[in-house]
Every structure is written in structure tokens, then in C-alpha cells.
Amino acid sequence: MNKLRALLIGGLVLMTSGCSTLSEVHWSKMAPWNWFGSSISVSDNGVGGISAATPLNEEALADGLNGDYRLRSGMRMTNGRVMSYYEALKDDKVALIISGDGGQVGKIEVMDEDIATADGDVKPGTPFSDLYSKAYGACTKGSGDDAELVVCKAPNSQHLSYLFGGTWRGPEGLMPSDDTLKEWTLKKIVWQR
Q: Where are the chain's structural domains?
């Protein structure tokens, strides 16, 4: 009996001191609403539990993503300004990029094929032809890091854009034809404040 008591006390000390593997447990996953799995979706309000009101810090982002991703932070220059960002990693691949300034989330780029729009119809990998019959009026050529992509405004949305990519051997700076775009797929869903 004394050995069992000593073992329990020793285990309790390890668990509460952060020296055990339980220090890596995201306790928010223990909430009853997460017991049967919770899927993250993209809407005009944001991604999962992340919105324009979410502070740009690791704890708030991890909670907004249900602790499903490993986060790493960084800084970069955008239009001459220093911007903070977080990469959300899944299986050591970048699944989301969350950035902003002034301590608030301003932009979320979704590349994870397991994250879809709230209606479940659109996710990375969706063919251009499933959403658009032509690019005119809805799409423009990407710029900067997305110069190889075509950016299309999501229908009925103030904050979402769809970025499509594929093979095209045309002149740099021009948009591919609608026939070419029909073969392209969605590479990123972007939510922007």
C-alpha cells in the first residue's frame, strides 16, 4: 500500500511540475464539445475560432485552432512594414499562415485540405471549374508571393478569396485562359480582415 501511495504521489508531482508528457496536452481539447471531434471551417468571420478580434499570440491561436496544429512564429517585411506571423504546422507541413499587425489577426491563409468553407463545398484541392465558368469579373492575377496564382473573390463574401494554381506556359504577367483555368485547383483560401 505504501508503494502505491508513493507511486501516486510521485506521478502527481511529475504531472504538475510539467516534467511529464502531459505538459504538451492541450487542455481545451478536453472540453465536452470537443469529445466527438470538432472540425475547423472557414467563413466570413474567420477560420475556426480565429477572427479579427483574436490576439496575434500563440495561446489564442492554439485555442482558436483547437490545439490541432503546432505553431511557430516569425517576422517578415510586407510593403515596407514589419509583420508578425505564425505558421500552423500539421505533420511538419505548413497548413495555415496567420499574420497581422497591431497585435491582432489580419490575414489567414489556409492550405490544409481538411479545412473547408462553412458549407463544406470549398477546400484546397477544389477544381476551378467547380466554382467558376470564367475568370472575367471574378479573378485577377496574383502578386508578390502569389504571382504564379490567380486570385478569385469568393461569391457572397466580404473577406474570402480563393487562390488557384496549375500548369501554364504563357507569358509572365498575363492571366491564363478560362480553358487553362478549368484544369487548375484551389491552392489557398485566404481570409482577410
A: 32-192
pTM over 0.85? The answer is no
pLDDT digits (tens, 9 = 90+) for 105-146: 999 999 999 999 998 889 999 999 999 999 999 999 999 889
Class of residue 181 by CB neighbours under 10 A (exposed 0-12, middle 13-18, buried 19+): buried
Q: Which amino acid is at 24?
A: E
Strands 116-117 and 41-43: parallel
Rounded to the nearest 10 degrees, how much is the dihedral formed by the CA atoms of 158, 82, 186, 45? Answer: -30
26 close to 67: Cβ distance less than 8 angstroms = yes
- Domain boundaries 32-192, corresponding CATH code: 2.60.460.10
Q: Which runs of E-coded beta strand occur in the chain? A: 41-43, 46-47, 70-78, 81-90, 93-101, 104-110, 116-117, 139-141, 150-153, 160-165, 185-192
Cell of 169: 506556359
Q: In what order do the strands lie in the sheet with 41-43?
A: 46-47, 41-43, 116-117
Residues in Cβ contact with 7 at an 8 Å cutoff, skipping those fewer than 6 apart: none
What gap in Å lies between CA 107 and CA 91, rounded to an integer?
A: 22
Q: Is the separation of the CB atoms in 172 and 192 below 8 Å?
A: no
Nearby residues of 14 by Cβ (< 8 Å), 6 or more positions away: 20
